[in-house]
Write a structure and sequence with these properties.
Strand content: 5-15%
Oligomer: single chain
Largest sheet: 2 strands, antiparallel
Number of strands: 8
Structural class: alpha+beta
Helix content: 25-40%
CATH architecture of the largest domain: 2-Layer Sandwich
Shape: flat
């Protein structure tokens, strides 16, 4: 028995040496710099996979949204690289502002409590472009940065890192990653492509496609009955403020860290 035990131990030692996976010290150093959240914002399943990828391809530097510029600079130092400014950060915007009381019809839903499940069935609410409010976006956020408030997905920009997980989780694609050129950004908080008459019958705060905003400022455009902000032309000018104030359903709003203190022009 003693001989067998010694034999098995020798076999295990040999197998351990033969099958041992070599650990790249540089990959481990990069991994230690990363937030280790495995959020997937970089396009890889986890931080360790991203660490390996960025070592092999330095062009991937700066893809870690939660880490931001600070993490990119630390990785650059490890790799003896120069890092440029990562550019304009992208943050999620919920293109809907209808709370429960704003929706004219909402069916009693007793299925699986997820947006994906509800979206696959007959209309749970009259507007097929609105927030379903079951919180798929909440469940995937690792930063506690989005919550369902009175039936509407609401982002806490103080906590949001721009990882994009909430946008990927929304089955109706009403959460969109958009460039944040300033701390607070003007946006059209609606996704409805119905006619104005149909939208009014379903929602009290939806875009009715009247085009008043586009007439006031070329920052806005109108397509498929829906107003949108052209962020390549983004300039919160007096004309843009006028467009926001003339909006009959008040669907043009500011979003951002201090948006609650941004006042409309009287």
């Amino acid at each position: 028995m003693l001989g067998l035990g010694v034999g098995f131990a020798i076999v295990l030692l040999i197998a351990n040496e033969k099958l041992k996976v070599e650990v790249d010290l540089k990959v481990e150093q990069i991994y230690e710099v990363l937030p280790n959240l495995d959020c997937g914002a970089c396009g890889y399943p986890g931080c360790r996979q991203y660490a390996k990828a960025v070592l092999e391809n330095p062009e991937l530097l700066g893809k870690c949204a939660p880490g931001g510029q600070q993490v990119a600079e630390k990785i650059a130092r490890l790799l003896n690289l120069q890092v440029s400014d990562s550019g304009t950060p992208e943050m999620p915007i919920v293109h809907c502002r209808a709370h429960t009381a704003d929706k004219t019809y909402r069916a009693i839903y007793q299925g699986i409590s997820t947006c994906i499940a509800a979206n696959a069935l007959a209309p749970v609410q009259a507007c097929k472009f609105g927030c379903l409010g079951f919180g798929d976006c909440v469940s995937v956020c690792k930063f506690d940065a989005i919550h369902i408030v009175d039936g509407l997905a609401t982002i806490d920009y103080e906590k949001c890192t721009g990882c994009g997980a909430c946008a990927k989780a929304c089955p109706r694609n009403i959460i969109e990653m958009s460039p944040f050129l300033q701390e607070n950004m003007m946006t059209v908080a609606c996704s409805s492509k119905e006619t104005g008459k149909a939208t009014r019958s379903m929602c009290r705060v939806g875009c009715i496609g009247c085009g008043l905003c586009a007439k006031q400022s070329d920052m806005f455009s109108l397509e498929d009955n829906l107003a949108r902000v052209d962020y390549e032309r983004y300039q919160p000018t007096e004309q843009a403020e006028t467009a926001m104030n003339k909006c009959p359903t008040k669907v043009i709003i500011y979003v951002g860290k201090t948006a609650q203190v941004v006042k409309r022009v009287s």
